[in-house]
Amino acid sequence: MNISGGRYHRVDDNWQVWDTKAFSLYSRSTEKIDKKGADMAIAAVCRFLSRMNVLNYNVYGGYESTVLLEEELVSLRSTASGLYIPHVKSFDSVERGQILADIIDPLTGVTVAQTEAPEDGIVFFAKDSPLVMENETLFKIVNKLHK
Predict the structure, then answer these.
(1) Is 119 in the same domain as 50?
(2) 3-class SS at 35?
(3) Three-state secondary structure call for residue 75
(4) In 32-139, alpha helices (H)
(5) What is the pLDDT of residues 49-85, one digit of tens each?
(6) Are 73 and 140 in contact, with CB atoms under 8 Å apart?
(7) Are 51 and 99 in the same domain?
(8) pLDDT tens by residue, 127-147
(9) 79 with 61, same domain?
């Protein structure tokens, strides 16, 4: 903490400035209670901490974690507001040009926008709330690791 002119200024707010590694945790659902997804997230965190020798924990099953950089993810945003009807969910494989979601005008029932996959990949994140605002993130897609 740095004190200047009677004010307190934090100098350690941004850990990236100090070359510290940060990890993000993503789960299957963000808008509702998902017991299976929560159990998967807890197991994944324990597996990760065990492999990093932070936690002494017997790891059974699960998937080997893959480190992804934010710039490797393709974010797809809505181009309109309305009712969000997804056609895919997290962990689904998608192909370039595949329609991933429709956005419907709630007053007319007309499809006002569609979201399509810009490339082959795996859905890493999929919004699960039925209402969407323009420019909201709907999907994050990662390139397939093995084609």
Answers:
(1) no
(2) helix
(3) strand
(4) 35-51
(5) 887 788 887 767 666 666 777 788 899 999 999 999 9
(6) yes
(7) no
(8) 988 999 999 999 999 987 654
(9) no
